[in-house]
# Entry
Amino acid sequence: MPVYVYIILMAGVTYIIRMLPFTFFRKKIESKFVRSFLMYIPYAVLSAMTIPSIFTSTGNVVTAVVGTVVAVVLAFFDLPLIVVALSASLAAFLTGLIA
Amino acid sequence: MERNFLRGLNHGLPIGLGYLSVSFGFGILAVKNGLSVFQSSVISASNLTSAGQAAGVEIIAAGGALLEMILVQLTINIRYSLMALSLSQKLDKSFTTPHRLLASYGITDEIFAVCSAQRGALTPAYMYGMILISAVGWVLGTFLGASAGELLPPSVTSAMGIVLYGMFIAIIIPPSRKRKSILFVTIAAALLSIFFRYVLTFISGGFAMMICAIAAAALGAWLFPVPDEGEGT
# Structure
């Protein structure tokens, strides 16, 4: 099977998944439960994606934990996304040099 | 219009940088699986998703069935339809059908998260700015990783693995601090996710993530329904 058949297929499926609800759902949702659910879903998704994967994200638990702690502390003080993200990475890098 | 586009670019910058580092890893993976630098970049430009692409490349390398490709992409990426549904609730009136068709290309976990954290309605220009810079980072990183991945010292590439997660934390923590209900949902999702990872190991990553997120958000909606103040207005 030519590689591009696979590529078109995977891109097509991924696009349709995103496009259908985004384009054709126009109503305001009335149900309080559903609206609350949709309000909470981003945080639930990000949390489930981050924990526990972040602890193996650098290939070394120690550097990952240090990076995570740095990220949590900086985020707690409301620093910009990019500062938090790069500081976590820098912390993991520096810890890797020492450890 | 232009101001919204610039604001989108600005808010998308950390995403683009995060993607640059993550897709670097994807580029290395794709070439290892026998794809060319160009093919790897085309996959990133047309899919704009991490887990789905990684799984897709492995199916291509294994010469898997087309049906398998469809089912795997559906399972891993079905979460985007939930995000698209959530975003559809806070679109500006200027979001006509052509804009919706175009912007739906760029609904990723990170773009979704940043967009839904915005106060007020989303305009097409804002989303385009964010999608553009994110896609540039994603494709450029893939290209660099595919063509020069082995040139960087491993200490640098491995430390880059945490960038996106650091960004997720920066999105989750401030609202969790301000609202007990969000803190509850965040912790519930994390605990469930740990349980799936180490106990229910037979459930694949993308699928497990969806179950955890839906369960935690539903529990939150049941225990702490959001008052009718009209979020986003």
